Amino acid sequence: MGKADRKRWDGNVKSMAIVAKPREDITEDDVAFLRDNYTSTGGLLPNAYAGGAFYTPTHVARFIIEALRGLSGGSFPQGSRFLEPSAGSGVFIEHLPKDAEVTALELDEISAKVTSLLYPHANVINDDAFRHALRDYYDYVIGNPPYGVTIDIAADDLPDNYETLKVTKGRAKGKSESAFIELAIKSAKPGGYIAFVLPMGINYANYAEKVRQLLYTTCWHVATVMLPGETFALTGTTIPTQILIVRKAPPVTPLIPSATTKWSSNFKRGGHEDITDFDAKFLVGQPPAYFAQITDIGYDKDGKSTDKWGDGRTQLDELLNDFTDDNLTRENLYPHIPSWHSVKDVSAFMFSHGNGSCDGYRDASYTYTGGPYRWNELTLGAGEEIEWRGEFVSTFDFTWQDQIVAEYYEGLAESLPAAA
């Protein structure tokens, strides 16, 4: 165990001693210590003992919350409902508005108590997240769910059926990352956002096929931001990860064919690729798929700062502008031929494929030397208009989703009985 790991270990041991005290004996200094030192045991113990939990770096959590704020018009509506289904020590809650309705689910008793001490305004529930029964309720579902852990829960404890969990002999079992995504989709309301840190394996692994299909048929893709292996180096792992941001579409939102049927690679010979050969359909309202690659997270694998200018900013801070500029950047990125089209089916379009050799990645690496790289991939069209409910809408219109969501809720309101 190195010096950094020893420091984390000692900090967690002292934190556990604080948490063991009666609540009335925990001082403000104790709470301050917890805030600065408790990280759980991810990376300090084998994964099976740590529950697949890895402390999310603060600047990663902050980026996710600020990106969602930008996507929401620059501020969160008062009383917005947030769910963090695997809260750990609540690093995401740190960046939420104090007037929000925050629900934090955490299976580990110590982590749940730490979160309740740090964020007394949050509703912290020490229980299995898959017993949580609120559906179509939350404006935002956020977090960094455990990876590579088998969910194992009594089937009778589930409030409804899960496509990502297989029931055998009364037990529902499945991969944690897939099941948490399904929980998020169930919990978010139509028009609500989901933002998770996820492993790269979900892009292509057979075990994730069901959840990729579920995302494809129920959610609009907003962004995929790939993070380098150094991101979680301070907690003992160098596995590359990614931030996936999606928006839940209203029920029965249809899948429609792409208006652009042929598109060329900028690097490969052979003319136009006919993407309709791959049954390229997308939810009505889907803009071009936005991807980004962070090449420097702010420190190296040993935790040494890579801040060249001494201003404390990282590539995530730079990338944030793409979510706060009223869609200006994302609307103007070239829509490259999709990386999924020759390796996976269209349900995998929310994830990048090709190991850095796809058109978008290669072009972005030349355009944004040093990073962060960012590019779009083709979905419904390269600017063509699609007729929708008597009007023509541009396939580059990033506000189309807002119109669809507004119409959905207007329809709900009209279907309610008039007040007496």
TrEMBL record:
CDD domains: AdoMet_MTases. It is an enzyme of class 2 (transferase). Pfam families: N6_Mtase. Residues 50-249 form the DNA methylase adenine-specific domain. InterPro entries: DNA_methylase_A-5, DNA_methylase_N6_adenine_CS, N4_N6_ade-DNA_methylase, SAM-dependent_MTases_sf. The keyword Methyltransferase applies. The keyword Cytoplasm does not apply. It comes from the Bacteria. Keywords: Methyltransferase, Restriction system, Transferase. It catalyses: a 2'-deoxyadenosine in DNA + S-adenosyl-L-methionine = an N(6)-methyl-2'-deoxyadenosine in DNA + S-adenosyl-L-homocysteine + H(+). Its EC number is 2.1.1.72. This is site-specific DNA-methyltransferase (adenine-specific). The lineage of its organism: Bacteria, Bacillati, Bacillota, Bacilli, Bacillales.
